[in-house]
Amino acid sequence: MTAIAAGRVATARDALPIVLLPLGSDDDALDACLAALDAGTPAGTRVWLADDAQAGPRGLAIIERWLQRTPLAADYSRRQRRIGEVAHLDEALQACGDADVVVLAADSIPAPGWLAQLAACFARDAAIATATPWCNAGEAAAWPRCGEIAPVPVDLPRLAQACAAMPPQHPELPAAVAHAVALRGSARRRAGGLDAASYGSWYAALVDLSLRLSGLGWRNALCETAFVARGGEGVADDGDLDALAVRWPGWHARLAHFLMNDPLHEMRMQLTQRHAAVEAAHPQADLFPRADGGDAQGDDGTRVQ
């Protein structure tokens, strides 16, 4: 690679958001998440594993092995004492300054090309403060059915291909969703960050941040060209939903109205059709691996099948 080409690769990589991965205690889910990150994210992408004294001995061993072999520009930090999910995330986000950050749940499985698609979503509309990809357990951003939890798709590379073919419209969501969310740094700073004093869960703090951003004129958008899978939905801590109802009296009714009426129904159906078309075009692709035993490389540097 020439120096000029290397410089272009580095510039494109640095233009991607920082991936912030707040660690939990599910070792198997973390192992799967890190493997998916390696497979679906361009080499050299900045990734921060932030540990609020959650990872146990096996989790620490998984992290150590991954750090030694990952092609990503990864860092790991661990607090000596736990301060709580929201306070820890707010501390990490503040450390990122005005940089755009994608907060990725540690039990999620990002599909190939996910990060480049989220970055492209931000580039298309400067008014977007949060961008949330599709998810099989994504509440308002759920696919194939709104508000329902579906199994983790077994063919994420093909699903990612179908998502990437979607016309990028980036419609409004009631709020960002916690499986994966891109946060525009300038908007986040203007809104004042997370409210760790009022909420114990990232789920509720993200809703609150989304609504504050909306009140300031920013948008909470769906990134329909990206997909991040997850085994289940995020949950609120005890008292968090009551706190949301007090601060935002219309929130629960607004979310319920969205889930019942599903204004994104046609878009979900379009993705289902595109996914079926990809499946029909490659019905036996998995039966014929590449002769060199490797994976093909996509334009964004991720490995595709």
Helix-strand blueprint:
Layout (H helix, E strand, L loop, with lengths): L2 H12 L3 E5 L4 H14 L5 E6 L5 H13 L3 E6 L6 H11 L5 E4 L3 E3 L3 H11 L3 E7 L21 H9 L15 E4 L1 H7 L10 H14 L3 E12 L9 H8 L3 H11 L3 H17 L14 E2 L5 E2 L1
Parallel strand pairs: 1-2, 1-4, 2-3, 6-8
Antiparallel strand pairs: 4-7, 5-8, 6-7, 9-10
Helix pairs in contact: 2-3, 6-11
Q: Could you tell me the radius of gyration in angstroms?
A: 19 Å
Shape: globular
The whole-number mean of residue pLDDT values reads: 90
Number of domains: 1
Write the CATH fold name: Spore Coat Polysaccharide Biosynthesis Protein SpsA, Chain A
What does this structure look like?
There is one protein chain. The chain has 305 residues and is an alpha/beta fold. The chain has eleven helices and ten strands. The chain has helices at 3-14, 27-40, 57-69, 85-95, 114-124, 156-164, 185-191, 202-215, 240-247, 251-261, 265-281; strands at 18-22, 46-51, 73-78, 101-104, 108-110, 128-134, 180-183, 219-230, 296-297, 303-304. The protein has an eight-stranded mixed sheet with strand order 3-2-1-4-7-6-8-5, sandwiched between helices. Helix 2 packs parallel to helix 3 (57-69) and helix 6 crosses helix 11. The model is unreliable at 1-12 and 287-305 (pLDDT under 50).
